[in-house]
């Protein structure tokens, strides 16, 4: 399972910009964050509350979307008005900021907290560059999850009377009295569609094949065939989404699942934060599957990948 490290990128290289002081001499910091959904905001508030308990003054600058937040951060730097800290995702953007000298190392914090001992080496390596710690991890996420709405499947079962609920759900928009349910909650943004593709690819070629394609850039017949098959399945999945999917935010798609307007959603485990906010979770309104995989004929044998409206057959 792939993991994504959500991080606070602490410090910027401009002296005097990492924190300012009020007249009361309270430590003050502006945080630029892209955590704007209900679950993300609740998580960020935990950190904010602890910071304020310790006497700090927290200034929030939230911007939806990692890309938009990165662009705004760079604009602030150019304008000489950098925030004290930025939250983001580990990867090329973070490395680029560090290579440009835009972040200060936080070795003193890491040493006092004994991060080298407390964190797994793999994570400690990710937050360190040239032997210095620059990043503070706030979470590690699994990207390959499938969430089911129990209520949606119950609706389909009630109106269709079918044993194969996955197939009935996929017919639900055409079936009489099935309330027009949408089979798949789809966020039509490139990064979301990439994650769904990765889930499919992982199921087709396995972890070794996945790493060969992404890490080794393998172009063997097996790898090429795996990518082609995954793209075919991804295209079929698109037959189960609604007309309003283009550009939809991930948390808006999750809201559709929470309100039982759709049957399933492919998303990382950060979606569970949205369920927590509304006090819904496994055993209540949802089913969860870790390491979601789409097989050639169905998703865990529940969703057929032959859209009725495209193929005209079962």
Automatic annotation (TrEMBL):
Pfam families: SBP_bac_1
Signal peptide: 1-23
Protein keywords: Periplasm, Plasmid, Signal
Protein name: Carbohydrate ABC transporter substrate-binding protein
């Amino acid at each position: 399972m792939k993991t994504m490290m959500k991080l606070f990128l602490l410090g910027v290289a401009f002296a005097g910009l990492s924190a300012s002081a009020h007249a009361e001499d309270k430590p003050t910091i502006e945080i630029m964050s892209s955590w704007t959904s209900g679950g993300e905001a609740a998580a960020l508030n935990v950190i904010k509350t602890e910071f304020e308990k310790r006497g700090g003054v927290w200034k929030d600058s939230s911007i939806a979307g990692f890309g938009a937040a990165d662009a705004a951060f760079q604009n602030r730097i150019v304008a000489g008005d950098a925030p004290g800290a930025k939250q983001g995702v580990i990867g090329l953007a973070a490395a680029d900021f560090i290579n440009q000298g835009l972040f200060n190392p936080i070795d003193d914090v890491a040493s006092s907290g004994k991060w080298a001992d407390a964190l797994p080496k793999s994570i400690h390596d990710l937050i360190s560059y040239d032997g210095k710690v620059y990043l503070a991890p706030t979470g590690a996420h699994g990207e390959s999850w499938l969430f089911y709405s129990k209520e949606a499947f119950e609706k389909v079962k009630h109106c269709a009377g079918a044993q194969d609920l996955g197939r009935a759900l996929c017919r639900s928009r055409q079936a009489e009295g099935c309330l027009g349910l949408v089979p798949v909650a789809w966020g039509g943004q490139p990064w979301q569609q990439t994650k769904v593709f990765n889930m499919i690819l992982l199921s087709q070629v396995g972890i070794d094949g996945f790493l060969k394609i992404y890490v080794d850039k393998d172009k063997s017949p097996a790898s090429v065939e795996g990518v082609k098959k995954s793209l075919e399945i991804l295209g079929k999945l698109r037959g189960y989404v609604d007309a309003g999917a283009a550009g939809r935010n991930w948390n808006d798609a999750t809201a559709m699942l929470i309100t039982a307007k759709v049957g399933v959603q492919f998303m990382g485990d950060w979606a569970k934060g949205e369920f927590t906010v509304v006090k819904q979770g496994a055993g209540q309104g949802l089913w969860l599957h870790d390491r979601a995989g789409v097989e050639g004929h169905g998703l865990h044998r529940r969703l057929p990948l032959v859209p009725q409206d495209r193929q005209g057959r079962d």
